[in-house]
Amino acid sequence: MNFIDQIKEDFLIEIFDKDFSEIKKQVTIEKFNFDFNRLNRTSIYEAIEYIIDEFGIMNDGNSYVQFFLDFALDYSNKYQTGLNEFIEHFEEKKEKLNIINPQGINAVEIITIHKSKGLEFPVVIYPYANINIHFDLNPKTWIDIKDDDEVNLQKSIININKDLEKIDKDLYNSYRNKLEIDNINLLYVVLTRAVKELHIISEKNLDSKGNENINFFSGIFISYLKNIGIWEDSKTLYEFGDKVNVKSESISSENITQKLFEVNSRIKQNIIINSKNADSWINDLNEAQEEGNIFHQIMQEINSKKEINIVLNRFFQSGLIGLSEMKYLEEKILKIVNHPELKRYYNGDLVSFNEREIISKKGFVLVPDRLVFLNDKDVVIIDYKTGKENDSHKIQLNKYKSVLEEMNFKVAGKILIYVNEKIKIFKSK
Question: Which of 24, 207, 392, 411 has CA 20 to 30 A from 351's CA?
């Protein structure tokens, strides 16, 4: 689509030092009135929707643009970030993204072996055919630890490696056998998808003595060729069966369009969705409880003072807080991190963990708001409260302390921070 009546390079040189208001005058779109400031007041999805609408990108419908919108919505649901982070994420993932072509489109379809199960294709090309049949990425398994009197747990999850063979050889071998079966089944799937032609691109992976490793697909292929008596060290191409010419109708390649799909920017219609109240609707929270939840969510993501503006901006762009709330929360949080008795715990030099689950020996799960480690053994517990003072809050801190001491840590301090009109701090050992 052409929005500018100029060659791209000439246009970029001409606008290099111009204000955006001047640049807009050269856009040939009718009634074009793009406003950058609107992007800072909306979610990622709504900002992209606004860009598409203003530039008229979806006037004729385009499945690639629709897929991009779906990708943006999925990202927004998973992460609370801004446009810059989304663009970085897209740049990392864009080479792996693709839309599913409907039947009848003349195209090469790139899919995983798992997704090809139950399907068939005239021609199948299987590149990089050299899977290690015993390989798994970060494998883990559960083991019984009932005989350990010092730990009141029946099972534990551990990494699967050669060390496991010394602990439980049967479990180790059972896992390797399962991997072997799964990968042989995978090989069966890829070898049975083709109707007319199957092309396998593997490696000539031999040791110094010329022996293949049958733990790899390449070794299985070489072993087969040797067994049927046609393997030659200098040969790299083997063909079986009769070659059939595979013809397809000549179809011009163009973008897949959906003429009924429209983008109607909510920003242009002055419809702004604020998501901050969703939790209160679902859980029937009052205003104070809702504010307390938002505060805890924000503090969960702040490890040091330099992250305050980044996190608040993210919550603002996601619609979880408004502009006035952002300024109010910034003031409150700065009072905490700059407090003479607290600022050392937020300077970024110490190791800290926010909202990390701790499982006690009895199986109870506790989640302190913040743990700050002064060294390998000494830890400070910090808990935030946005309501009235209550003795149960101190009892809660003592529970955290007991669990940490069970883990052989020494609690150097317990800090209770009440965040209301004024910041109130209670410290104890």
Answer: 392
